[in-house]
Amino acid sequence: MTVADEKKALICLIAGLLRDCNHVAVGAASPIPGAAALLAKAAWGSPMHVNILGSVANNFFTGGGGELFDCAAQGRIDAFFLGGGQIDGSANINLMGRGDYPKSNPRWPGTFGSAYLYFLIPKVILFREEHSRRTLVEKVDFISAPGTSEEGIYRKGGPFGLITSKGYFRFDKNRKRFNLVSVHATNSLEDILDNTGFAFDYLENVPVTPDPDPQLLDLLDRQVKAKIAEVYPNFSNTIFTVTSPD
To answer: How confident is the model at residue 244, as a pLDDT?
Structure first.
């Protein structure tokens, strides 16, 4: 499986998790989640609304990030994506930097409202392609956005799961830990155990992530390329092969 095929498989996997949503918002620098949201809309008509920050054609926000935050507070966004330089087993994310704050080295871009969105949007999918002990750690160095909250704190949003280049995890909010749902075809349980810094639950015979539906792959090449190329042209040219949509 080529790198392009692996990325397409991630797009198809994520698309399947969005088909029960009405409105999906995608932040900046998120080509795979953005392509997945557009694919879900093309394949099933849901989500009905997809907003990709930075896009003109696929973004009906006129107020930028401020309107995103307003919609989240009004309960009008069903799913969003967050990543981080570090993610730990409690679904905490670190967007500030490695090491003790404020002397973090390196320093990362910062939180930019991630905690706010984490508390308000019901289905937050954590996405980080790199799957290593450097990124998936036992405990983040700085909590930019907490995965869970103490009892009595109002919170309708939170982590749904974590998707990486190696596997797909669901987050158990009651036990406050991840459960490995499936291992991607080019990897193994042993590989995931070796490269994950936090403890998680898993079956001895953990399933393999199903291969993408050929019809979804066809939609990717025929319809999604031109749409995602509007905001991520280099990504589109690298991943997709067909030059024009239907």
So the answer is: 42
